[in-house]
Structures are given as structure tokens and as C-alpha cells.
Amino acid sequence: MTRVAVCELGPVTIRRLDGVPRTADPDLADAALQAGDDPMTVVGERAVRTAAVWRRVLTPLLDGASEAHLIHPSWWPATRPAMVAAAAAGLADRVLTRPRSASAAADAVVEIGPDQLLVARAGGHVVETRSGTTEALAARVAELVDGAGSVALDAPADVPGATVLGGLITARLRTGVTPVDPRQWAIEPAAPDLPTPARAGNRWRWVAGVGLGGALAGAAWLAAPEAAVDAPPTVALVEGRISTAVPDGWAVRRVTDGPGSARLEVAAPGEPAAVLHLTQAAVPGGDLPAVAATLHAALREQPPGVFVDFNPTDRRAQRPAITYREIRPGAEIRWTVLVDDGIRIGIGCVGPPELSAVCDAAIGSAHRIR
């Protein structure tokens, strides 16, 4: 029997909602949440790896669970839930993530955090900073949800000022407002509801993200051609000495023949053109510049035109990285190489540019298991 643990990851408190509720150590939870996408955070007076803190936070909460649903603030970038899922590798057989706004059945969702709020409607969302007066912000939210048949208001009681702001928003809306109660997620945990990767084609995505009084002042939503999609729900893939987040449901196989290094291949179901390649190798004492020099020398020995655009000082998913392209008949692999505690990790992406969120999630979460 699958035992599902449903956990709320912030914006202020980290807790398990199902069964007997459990709340994470507040100091560790604060350190994890305040770290954001920084690889290091501070616990007490010590600098600690953020992934290690997340694992310490989640270990007691996921005790006895075979499946974990981690529900996070909707304004998190795709790399952050992927990193948390990878940090939870092994604590449950299956780890899934989803944003808070995906758990509410309404035409519009208003989600209030300590420093910002998010308004989600079909096709996209707007993030507003909590600047200016509370009354002005409530009026702005009312503009953004105008025309929605139903509104879910997610105003966590532990977020400073959320109750007051939520009351002002409710008073301004002409439609019905339903408060979000996170405890309901544990009664009927919704299936993770992040979109799967898809080709953009001629579709449009509604995107926006400016502060109060910014460029959106004269328009509710900004239409733009879709250039990227959010990452789908992820699971932690553990292989040898590394763990990384890969899309849930993608097929994994080991490749040991053909050109290139031995690797794991993670492919999208029904979409053979969308593939992640994962490699690893020990580089004791090696740092990124040393690995870059060795790798560059090895690539120069290959036939001309196979490995191109080598960049030893690039950045991907907010991490220092080596990047280059591998061009083979019928495929081009965009490689990112990281070094973590003596392990060289290679992540190769194959597919259309709009799959970049999947690649960034894998790159941002990849780490050596300690």
C-alpha cells in the first residue's frame, strides 16, 4: 500500500499535513527557505550546503512514507523544487513536487507570501511585490482577477500581514472567494499538476512579472510568444555517486556503446527527440578550471566539428559550469559539466529550446550524494 506524505514547504513554515501533523525544526526550516537558490546557507553560525539542510528538514517529515508530495510556493523557479526533490532522494520511493496554486480548483488563485504575491489564471501568472500600501495592492489584485468566476485566496496565517491583505482583497471582489486550507491537501492530495514539456508551435503563453506600478499598470496581462515551459513534476534519479531531478515518467536506460562516454539516457515518453544524458566521473581534488583544461584537451583530439562552442566559464541554472555542444548525425547535445566534491557531472540536453526548464531543473539539482 502506498503511504503518501503531503508536505507544505513554506513560504514560512515547513510541515507534514497528513496523519498526525508534524512541523519541521523552525531554525532549519528558516535556513532552507531563506537560502533560495544559493548553494550554501547559514545554520547558527555555520555555512552549510543548502541541499544538506533540506535533507535534514525533510528526513523526519517523510518518515514511513513511500511517496512524498512536496507543495511549494508558486513563485519558486523550476530549479528550486527540483533541488529539494533531489535532496529528498531515498527518503521516499517517489518524490513529486507541485506549486500551491495547482492545488486550488478555481478560475483564479491569489497566493500571498512575505515579500510578494502571485495571481494565477489559466495559462500563466503574475507576481507582484508587496510594496506600496496594502489598499493599493488589494486594488491591483482585484484588477488582475476581474472577470474570474471563482477565486481561491491562499493567505497563510503565518505570513505577516496576509490576513489583513486577504480581507481587503475579499472585500473588493464581486465574485465568490474561497479560502485555501492546506489541510485539505492531505485529505485528497491532488495529482501533481505541472505541465509536461511540449513544442511551442503557434501557441501563446500569458506571462507577466513586475512590481506594483510597473509596466503592467495599464494592462492586466501581457501576451508573448511562448519561449519556454515550466518543468514537469520531477523525481530524484540516483545513479552511482550522484543524484539529480528528472521528469516523472520519463524512461531511463543505460547506454554503453556508440560514440561518447557511457551514460544514462532519460527520454520523454512518446517524444524521442527530448532526451537527457547523464554522465559522471571521479576527479579527486579537481576543481572546475582543472576539469575544463583536461576536458578541452580531450575534445580537441576528436574530429573537427564534433565538439564546438566550448566555454569553460559559463553559468547554467545559476551554477558555474563548462558548456559545449556535441554534434552527431541526427542529433545535437547541449552539454553542461559541473564539479561537485570530486565528481564531474555531465548533463546533456537534446530537444527543442522550450525544454530548457527540464534541463535547468536537472542541472540545478545535480549533486554528489554524501
Automatic annotation (TrEMBL):
Source species, domain of life: Bacteria
InterPro entries given in the database record: T7SS_Rv3446c
Protein name: Alanine- and valine-rich protein
Organism per entry: Mycolicibacterium chitae (Mycobacterium chitae)
